[in-house]
Amino acid sequence: GRKIMIGFLQLDGSEAEPGVIIRKQNALLKFLPDGWNLFLVRQGIHPLSLESSFLKGELHGLILTGYAGEHRNELARALAKIPHVWLNSHNLGSGGTTVLMGNEFAGRMAADFLLQKQIKKPLVLTFQCGNPGFAPKVDGFRFRYFSMGLTCTLLEWKTPDRKNFENCFSAELEKTLEDLLPVIIREKYDGIFIPDERMATLFHRGLSKRK
After folding, report:
1. In a designed cystine with 78, which of 29, 51, 69, 126 is the match (CB 3.0 to 4.6 A)?
2. What does the pLDDT look like over 192-209, one tens digit per residue?
3. Whole-structure pTM over 0.85, yes or no?
4. What secondary structure letter does DSSP report for 33?
């Protein structure tokens, strides 16, 4: 009959947009059984504090988002004792890099979709990103086109101050899009692959504003 306390911990590389964070938390809450509680763990907390809370019975498990950041080694040691689930690929220093299954397959699925649409001149938009799962998505897409004897173009969507896009606000990213669109329109690409849902949404919004 005890209450189960699950911590939601945002590490470096987590989304900066409050709306995205709230949507993730609400989605998680729908799946928690009765008597389970989800609480936001203070960002920047030392892994030893997490381990101490777990040993005292104040914390029963963790849901983590982000790409680790500082204290990676200490975090890896603490997580060896605490039941946990990652929402994304991550890097834990000496604990190694973990790329969640399906990233490369997602890239191949995107390529298959565009190939079915007979897209012969696709563009892949890349950007500064902390997610280790980003590169496999791009690789999967490129490999699928290469296996069909076709090529694709990579173009970088430059983020402000070369920050990872996860640490940028939407308004900042939309401004940088203004320099990108004329290039895309001039080259007349007939299909685009954007390996992140948030960036794809911002790109679509930018196109819509320009009719």
Report:
1. 51
2. 999 998 899 999 988 888
3. no
4. P
